[in-house]
Amino acid sequence: MRAVIVAAAVAFIISLFGTPVAIKVFTALKAGQPIRGTLGLASNQGKKGTPTMGGVAFIVATVFAYVAGHIALTTLPERQIAQEGPTMTALVLLGLFVFCGVVGFLDDFLKIRKRNSDGLSAKGKLLGQLIVGTGFGIAALYVASTNGQTVASEHISFIRDVSWLNVGKVGSVMVFVFVIMAMSNGVNLTDGLDGLATGASILVLGAYALIGFWQYRHWCGDTAYQRANDYCYQVRDPLEIAMIAAAAAAACVGFLWWNTSPARIFMGDTGALGLGGLIGGLAVATRTTLLSIIIGGLFVIITMSVVIQIISFKTTGKRVFRMSPLQHHFELAGWSEVNIVVRFWIVAGICVAIGLGLFYSDFLAVMG
């Protein structure tokens, strides 16, 4: 627990005090968010020129916090979980966070350079996500620890691996890539109103911090626990999973101080794609791939609003929503930006609560 607290505290402090530095730097570099007209959206009024790429602040904060947390981790008496260097789990999760963020950074950079909202093409962005997802998917499936445990599993998981859903290593890499791409684009679509994606991500990352720590307390890698109990979680490095999730959540809290309405800085695609990549990685690493659909329910709902809108318009020529993603539908319906953000946070919180409830009820059912 000490390592998780240290990582979260360091991430919060670096992000809280580092984000104003990022605001000054990106403002000086004239890295303002290009706005394509107002599109009739009240939330776009007055936002032109607000610096973007703020995701750099909480990504950097999380990486430094991991180092601090890992130092605290190596001081623990339980030497079986205190390793001298970063674990493969940490490399995969932080790698997804950083490199999905790099794809987003390229998109943001091109938008700023061209002085319009056209950054990377859709194909270019998807290709970048595909490359990152495939690379870390292979590492997650093919690089095993000394006991043969890998970061990801050959099974599709819900609350734990589903025994009859074995898709093999190649199939698992494909599932891994899909989860990363789906979640990163889901968070990206959710971004658009001040603090919306940041607050929702805090809730989801907080849930994964709890799941990771719970799995650590009931871990098959803990020989003392395994001898005393029939049931344990077959995951790799759950304490580091909890530490990274908690650090990322705390870093987002520090960032939200400056990102809430009226935003002084936007996370940009840098932050949105990075957060989505990390959340997808956490889902796979904790063996809760299908459960992540519920935990990240807000991202799923908003993504589906875009899918429904596109299908409806292409097949019938009619729109289901005034505008997609869904948050802009409510803007055009007359809701204020703050009302939409707070109510969507409530929806995100309900989804997280249901997901955690299912996770814990499964544990009670097995132990009972």
TrEMBL record:
Recorded GO MF terms: metal ion binding; phospho-N-acetylmuramoyl-pentapeptide-transferase activity
Domain of life: Bacteria
Cell location: Cell membrane; Membrane
GO cellular component: plasma membrane
Cofactor names: Mg(2+)
Membrane protein topology class: Multi-pass membrane protein
Catalysis performed (reactions): UDP-N-acetyl-alpha-D-muramoyl-L-alanyl-gamma-D-glutamyl-meso-2,6-diaminopimeloyl-D-alanyl-D-alanine + di-trans,octa-cis-undecaprenyl phosphate = di-trans,octa-cis-undecaprenyl diphospho-N-acetyl-alpha-D-muramoyl-L-alanyl-D-glutamyl-meso-2,6-diaminopimeloyl-D-alanyl-D-alanine + UMP
Keyword Cell cycle attributed: yes
Binding site for Mg(2+): 188, 269
Entry's transmembrane regions: 6-29, 50-68, 88-106, 126-144, 164-183, 195-216, 241-258, 265-284, 290-313, 340-360
InterPro entries: Glycosyl_transferase_4, PNAcMuramoyl-5peptid_Trfase, PNAcMuramoyl-5peptid_Trfase_CS
Keywords of this entry: Cell cycle, Cell division, Cell membrane, Cell shape, Cell wall biogenesis/degradation, Magnesium, Membrane, Metal-binding, Peptidoglycan synthesis, Transferase, Transmembrane, Transmembrane helix
Pfam family, any one: MraY_sig1
Any GO BP annotation: peptidoglycan biosynthetic process
The protein's Enzyme Commission number: 2.7.8.13
Leading EC class: transferase
Pathway: Cell wall biogenesis; peptidoglycan biosynthesis
Function statement: Catalyzes the initial step of the lipid cycle reactions in the biosynthesis of the cell wall peptidoglycan: transfers peptidoglycan precursor phospho-MurNAc-pentapeptide from UDP-MurNAc-pentapeptide onto the lipid carrier undecaprenyl phosphate, yielding undecaprenyl-pyrophosphoryl-MurNAc-pentapeptide, known as lipid I.
Listed HAMAP family: MraY (MF_00038)
Family: Belongs to the glycosyltransferase 4 family. MraY subfamily.
Protein name as annotated: Phospho-N-acetylmuramoyl-pentapeptide-transferase
